[in-house]
Write a structure and sequence with these properties.
The protein has 236 residues and is of the alpha/beta class. The protein has one domain: Ribonuclease Z/Hydroxyacylglutathione hydrolase-like (Metallo-beta-lactamase, Chain A), CATH 3.60.15. It is built from 6 helices and 14 strands. A hairpin with a 5-residue loop joins strand 2 and strand 3. The longest helix has 11 residues. The chain binds nickel (II) ion (NI) and manganese (II) ion. The site of manganese (II) ion (MN) has 7 residues, from helix 1.
Length: 236
């Protein structure tokens, strides 16, 4: 699909760096330093305008505090995560909750549901992080991107389709802690995106879902969607 000026770099697992058509830098689920899938030459981030966090698990949030302090991005997350980050030194927070939409600079962000769990590892102490969520981001060129976070498949993905009609979806396929290929294919039948980017697989041996298995499940279900399989570090 034509991203029309948006540049997406997969940093491995659920972490993406997205450059907007207007040149703003956004990170989704910031986890790079401890992320075994992030290539060494992509571990240092030199600029961030927006930071979006789906939940507080360390494989999505491990670098949130440091990156917020280093680059002063606008932090977009559920209320509890924003307050946590503010207490740790984030200077620009844009808290929200599920069902809400806000314009932040040149992006419009809607927070949507995600069935998962959510805690934050605060230096070895597990603290509550509010509820996990997903995001639908509408760019100034009209392209809409859904980052699901870490959910199972759930029926209200049909509502996400009806209300926001995302063009491109980032869906976990690794299984065990999230959807696997079968569930992700069902999710595509509900979300009906033009393109899907699988994520949250192969980072650790226990995440056994593969793009090949996902492709098979999509075919078996008769879902027509462009499957964009990226390599960690690759930009589209
Ligand atoms: Ni998680
Ligand atoms: Mn995860």
């Amino acid at each position: 699909m034509n991203l029309n000026g948006i540049k997406i770099t997969w940093l491995g697992h659920a972490t993406f760096l997205v450059v907007t058509p207007g040149g703003k830098h956004m990170i989704l689920d910031p986890w790079v330093t401890g992320n075994p899938a992030t290539p060494a030459n992509k571990k240092s981030i030199d600029r961030l305008d927006y930071m979006l966090c789906s939940h507080g698990h360390s494989d999505h949030f491990g670098d949130a505090v440091e990156l917020a302090k280093a680059h002063n991005p606008k932090v977009i997350a559920i209320y509890e995560l924003c307050i946590f980050l503010q207490k740790k030194g984030a200077r620009q927070i844009a808290p929200m909750n599920k069902g809400g939409t806000q314009q932040v600079g040149d992006i419009k962000v809607s927070m949507v549901n995600a069935h998962h769990s959510n805690t934050i590892d605060d230096n070895g102490v597990s603290v509550p992080g509010g509820e996990p969520c997903g995001f639908v981001i509408e760019f100034e060129n009209g392209v809409k991107l859904y980052h699901a976070g870490d959910p199972n498949v759930f029926g209200d993905m049909a509502i996400i389709r009806e209300l926001y009609a995302p063009d491109i979806c980032m869906l976990p396929i690794g299984d065990l802690f999230t959807m696997g290929p079968k569930e992700a294919a069902y999710a595509c039948s509900l979300l009906k995106p033009k393109a899907v980017i699988p994520m949250h697989y192969a980072t650790f041996p226990v995440l056994t879902g593969t793009p090949e298995a996902f492709q098979k499940e999509l075919k078996a279900r008769g879902v027509s969607v462009e499957l964009i399989t990226m390599k960690p570090g690759e930009t589209r």
